[in-house]
Design brief:
RCK_C_sf; elongated; about 10% strand; repeat; Alpha-Beta Plaits; transport; transmembrane; about 55% helix
Length: about 600
């Protein structure tokens, strides 16, 4: 073993150990390792920051922005809410919402797919009277499996495609992953829905699990806009929409006067005010369904802050908690002139489960109160920070309009078709789509930067030059030769399965991008040493890098559901281990058929 090889083995081993330790951010570990490599001379200084211009890094960032544009258009939420029904048996519910999650995660970031569907799943569980812990883990696993089916479904696929281009001269196309990925996704979701969910442990006596029925409600006033489909209908005719959104219509206000009773048989006019009660998510869904808006007042919104805010993002709702040291504690919203200064309106207050039906602008706000604010997204972020409150959730209430859906889907599908037909590279195609999203307002300038997962981008950009250096000094060849030596005398399939199992173990402990960066070059070199098809080995690592089901740290989706589902660290392996074993058993024959040795 040469000196550069020894240094790089030690450096890569140290990086791997620090990533497993988890006490230091993975982007800082990767960047620190890269700089050490430059200082000791094993990574050429001219190549140190080449990773930031690597196509894989650029595509990962652009796909996240495109995912946000699709969410903002309202198309994804519209589809999801129409498909999910609370009255279904749990097995059918898991199959349906898992299928929707897998389909979405094939084309948008799988974390975004889970974030979109998780509130719907929790709300469905609440209506069905069951704990969300029975369905959140199946949903998270389904969105991870869905990412296996396309080039952009998950970052490891993009990384594998660039490795193939370097090694074989051509990247993977958009749907090259589909034959194996679909088999894995369908088999995995069916396994979970048909009985796998029963392996999820029920809550123990000493564990605090969120109650599905415990949601803080607000009473808010919402104005009927000129474009609202509610105009001309009776209040009683909105029962289906209110039930679907899970809000209660308390009454109707017209010209400052509350109509008698709940105005069930009053005909709705433009400018009427609905008084509704519901959670933040429910209110947001009702606003989208009927094209409602915040109640107008006689305060002009002419401050520079408000004008800037109006140009920086569509409307949203933010649920936030007042801390003891918050600027607004023991004062009223009226004293801060939030609407006139920032274009932000206080819609509702919830205090220890109690809501207020009277006008709230002059009510004194106390520490511990939950506030429901509405306004442009950028303005909300500024106001929450300025007030010193703690945000709990943010929900877009941009109405789903046909032109937004058409533009969002048209640009995205156009990018996929152009790349699949080899007119232009996918990097260029998705970049054009993102520019189109920004030009049409489907993503704001702030979102273009906020939606990028910068720690993952920096980690990937730092690890790629290290991986290239490791390969250039023969490090991957040494690892490949070791795998070949251990499996000598057996079929190459044994080496493929062995590499896959090692990758699965890494993926349960490491970020899946880091796992792919480490395993991808080894897969290609092992295949070359055995004189077999590199695609088979590379696809094996692609599948294995996404089989992170044993722990809450193996994938972000596993982490996201830990709190809402009330899961402990040891709950994941009970469903995750059988699922991982099943995926290896199913994927190996599929890989050998689609990508024969």
């Amino acid at each position: 073993m040469t000196q550069p090889q020894m240094i790089l083995f030690a450096l890569m081993g140290s990086i791997l150990a620090l990533l497993l330790w988890g006490r230091i951010r993975h982007d800082l570990v990767a960047m620190g390792g890269l700089l050490v490599g430059v200082v000791v001379g094993v990574v050429p200084e001219k190549d140190a920051f080449s990773g930031f211009s690597h196509p894989a890094v650029i595509v990962v960032a652009l796909v996240l922005i495109a995912s946000r544009a699709l969410e903002n258009s309202g198309a994804l939420s519209l589809i999801a809410r129409r498909i999910v029904r609370p009255g279904r048996p749990i097995a059918i519910h898991i199959a349906v919402i898992g299928g929707v999650g897998a389909a979405l995660s094939a084309f948008i970031n799988n974390v975004a797919a889970l974030a979109l569907l998780m509130p719907i799943d929790i709300n469905t569980a609440r209506k069905a009277g069951r704990s969300p812990r029975l369905t959140l883990m199946p949903l998270a696993f389904a969105t991870i499996l869905g990412g296996l089916t396309t080039l952009i479904g998950t970052p490891p696929n993009i990384v594998a495609s660039t490795f193939r281009q370097d090694a074989l001269g051509a990247p993977y196309k958009m749907f090259d992953f589909a034959p194996v990925g679909l088999i894995c996704a369908i088999t995995g979701i069916l396994f979970i829905a048909l009985g796998g969910w029963r392996l999820i442990p029920r809550a123990t006596a000493g564990r605090q699990v969120p109650e599905p029925a415990r949601i803080d409600d607000f009473v808010v006033e919402l104005a009927v806009s000129a474009q609202s489909p509610a105009i001309g209908r009776l209040v009683a005719q909105l029962d289906e929409e209110s039930e679907a959104a899970d809000v209660v219509i308390l009454g109707l206000i017209r010209d400052g006067r509350r109509l008698p009773g709940r105005a069930r048989f009053a005909t709705i006019r433009e400018g009427d005010l609905f008084e509704v009660e519901g959670s933040a998510d429910a209110v947001a869904a009702f606003i989208k369904a009927l094209g409602l808006e915040q109640a107008k007042d006689d305060i002009s919104v002419d401050a520079p802050e408000a004008e800037d805010a109006a140009r920086t993002g569509g409307p949203a709702l933010v649920e936030t908690v007042v801390r003891a040291d918050s600027r607004i504690a023991w004062r009223s919203a009226e004293a801060f002139r939030l609407r006139s200064r920032f274009g932000v309106t206080l819609l509702g207050i919830s205090r220890q489960g109690r809501t207020f039906r009277e006008r709230i602008s002059s009510r004194i706000i106390e520490p511990g109160d939950m506030l429901l604010l509405t306004g442009p997204q950028a303005a909300l972020a500024h106001v929450v920070n300025w007030l010193g409150t703690m945000p709990l959730s943010e929900t877009s209430v941009q109405a789903a309009r046909t032109w937004r859906i058409v533009v969002a889907l048209g640009l995205f599908i156009g990018a996929i078709i152009a790349a699949s037909a080899s007119f232009i590279s996918f990097t260029t195609a998705i970049a054009i789509a993102v520019v189109g999203y920004a030009a049409t307002g489907l993503v704001t300038p702030r979102e273009v930067y906020d939606q990028v997962d910068w720690p993952v981008v920096v980690m990937l950009a730092a690890l790629l030059p290290l991986s290239a250096a490791f390969e250039s000094v023969g490090g991957t060849a040494l690892v490949a030769n070791a795998i070949v030596a251990v499996t000598a005398g057996h079929s190459p399939v044994v080496a493929l399965v062995g590499l896959m199992l090692v990758t699965v173990i890494l993926s349960d402990m490491l970020n899946n991008v880091a796992t792919m960066v480490i395993a991808g070059p080894v897969a290609i070199e092992t295949a070359r040493t055995l004189s077999v098809n590199p695609d088979a080995f590379l696809m094996a690592t692609v599948v294995a890098a996404s089989l992170a089901f044993l722990t809450p740290i193996g994938h972000k989706n596993n982490t996201l559901i830990m709190g809402p589902g009330g899961y402990s660290f040891g709950d994941y392996w009970r469903l995750g281990l059988p699922l991982e074993i099943l995926m290896v058993i199913v994927s190996v024959p599929a890989i050998l058929i689609v990508w024969p040795l």
